[in-house]
Write a structure and sequence with these properties.
globular, about 170 residues
């Protein structure tokens, strides 16, 4: 399925920015390409830059990377629950609580890279295993309805959105 075929009725408008951050990609190939692109970006980061924040009160580079990983985990869990037809409404998560409790400042770039790769591989395994019926299932998270396939595109788009910020504001690339 292509991103352009995803109806906006399958996700909250809040996530539209993330979905628009993607080209007209197919779900699985987008997740795979996103992995390659993000690993390449991580390979360009100097270890001594992990503690850098581009402005007062902003996350450090390491915290931003951990945020991307944590968010993918949360969305992946939502996708699993909805794909398995779990009708339980899921709560939101507060990224502003997660980040300071992430221990990001003591992490090495290698550990962040390894964790990202493991999480994305898990996401790929999950979405590769889902049939059309499961991808179309809908659940409620953070008070909004969303489909499993929308969650896959949101995972890709969230990462693409933050990768752009990492390049522009943290690494002064592009």
């Amino acid at each position: 399925m292509l991103r352009s075929e995803l109806p906006t009725s399958e996700y909250n408008n809040f996530y539209h920015t993330y979905i628009l951050a993607l080209g007209d990609i197919e779900l699985l190939s987008g997740l795979k390409k996103g992995k390659e692109d993000f690993l390449s970006l991580l390979d360009q980061i100097p270890e001594n830059k992990l503690g850098f924040a581009y402005a007062e009160g902003k996350w450090t580079l390491a915290e931003a990377i951990v945020h991307i990983i944590d968010t993918e985990r949360v969305f992946q869990y939502r996708a699993l629950r909805f794909a398995r037809n779990d009708k339980t409404d899921l709560p939101g998560f507060d990224q502003d609580i997660y980040v300071p409790n992430s221990n990001a400042s003591s992490r090495s770039l290698e550990s962040l890279r390894n964790e990202y790769e493991a999480v994305r591989d898990s996401t790929l395994a999950l979405f590769s295993s889902l049939g059309e019926t499961a991808l179309l299932r809908v659940g409620v998270a953070s008070g909004s309805r969303m489909s499993v396939r929308a969650l896959g595109f949101i995972i890709s788009g969230h990462q693409a959105h933050h990768a752009r910020i990492l390049k522009e504001r943290y690494l002064q690339m592009e």
